[in-house]
Amino acid sequence: MKTPPTQILRQLAVAGVGTLLLSAAAQPALAQTTSPAQPPAGSVPPTAPSGPYSLQRAIDVALQNNLTIRQQQLSVENTNAILRQSRAAVLPTANASASQSWNYGTNVDPLTFQFQNQTTRANNFSVSAGLNLFSGFQVRNTIKRNQLDYQAGLSDIEKSRNDIALNVASSFLQLVLAQELVRTNEARVNSSQQQVARTQKLLKAGSVAESNLLDSQAQLASDELNVITAQNQVAFYKLQLAQLLNLTSATGFEIEVPTLPDPDDEASFSGNPDGTYQTALGLMPEIKAADLRVQSSMRTVDVARGAYYPRFTFGASVFSGYSSARIGRKLSGDSTIVPSGLIYEVTPTGPKAVPGLIAGIPQPRFETLPEGFTSQVKNNLGKQINFNLSIPILNGLQVRTNVQRSQIGVKQAELQAEQSRLQLRQNIQQAYADAVAAQRRYISAKRQTEALSTAYRNSEIRFNNGLLNGTDFNIAKNNLYGAESSMIQAKYEFIFRRKVLDFYEGRGLTL
């Protein structure tokens, strides 16, 4: 499941101080709320190669190994095959067929159409062709609709690639933040260890009470717990990022920690969300895909309306056959005298038959033989052409219902396109608001850290001189560390929001 941009924009909010102060029992809940957007499944690539990963390298590997993108690519290939098939529908059809059969007992000869009671062998051969001359422009509109669906599928792939890149960038920055918080907490542990050592010396000298040492040791234990918690967060985000890259293991997986400027190194952040939105409309693939599907749904209406029109087709065929029962006559070379009547002679009294004489006409003799295969195929050759006109009159209102359903589909596609634009506008507005708020929070947290640093040094001097108890000293110390954590969190939150806005403006995700 891909993480939507609005959720990505809020993922950094769970990191930082709140994360590090969570107890061990709270860790599973955090893991559920920030689960990887694309877990590995099926066949996965090998483990991470040697060498740390930059953000760009991590994005490239994630895009190469992601199974969702592979599935979408196969879906687009299927859509392309449908497009090729619809284009081929304008071509004429041609088919050839041949058959051979044996008839036993009483049957009708397929060529002589006579009843007979004998075993016969029959062959039939035919070649036919057809051409769709007119079908309400359904074929043409189907081709255009499938072209739009194919282009929308390509945009869907690009949308998935963008979502994966945002997910990787979010996890990458969360991992960088977690590593920096580990270093910060380790520095706190080192400071607490030094403080415990100093307190032990002061206790031996009688300068402080034993309770101060106990407070320092309790603070050291808390700082060590925070280090373990931060290290667990590093391991979690490292595993999350490795899973986004679809690697089999996070062992040996490291990242390049970039050098990032502080938010107050640049002027106060300001921008024009509407300008970024107008730029993003022409760049974001989800907007293009939504518009293409609106056009596709309109073509579906045209295809449905095409069923109102008559259909006109042309066809032609050639056929022949053979039957073993068919016989033919053949001259034998002999002839037979066939009597034709009496012979008369002319007498004065009129014609008179000559007794004993009969007139005869020679007739040729024929033999009845089965007709040969080649001769039958040649003599039985038939040809046919036909034109077929089909006029729809009433078909249970199916065409009308299909048109109405396709018109509803257009409205749904238009609403989806409008929803995509609204979501994009809200994401950009939220990113701008969060970036401004993060920069302001960083500047305020930095001033707070500077003030608390001075207060902490003063408290440390008073504590070492026995003028401040351990509880108040630890409060001053924790206040300083809390301000430092808030400042670090605000820094990375601002960086991520800025990168999201750069992404919407087509500048890519780079650190």
TrEMBL record:
Residues 1-31 form the signal peptide. Its main location: membrane. Transmembrane segments: none annotated. It is found in: Cell outer membrane. One of its GO terms (molecular function) is porin activity. Residues 37-49 have a biased composition (Pro residues). Keywords: Cell outer membrane, Membrane, Signal, Transmembrane, Transmembrane beta strand, Transport. GO terms for cellular component: cell outer membrane; efflux pump complex. The keyword Mitochondrion does not apply. It comes from the Bacteria. Belongs to the outer membrane factor (OMF) (TC 1.B.17) family. This is TolC family protein. It comes from Hymenobacter metallicola.
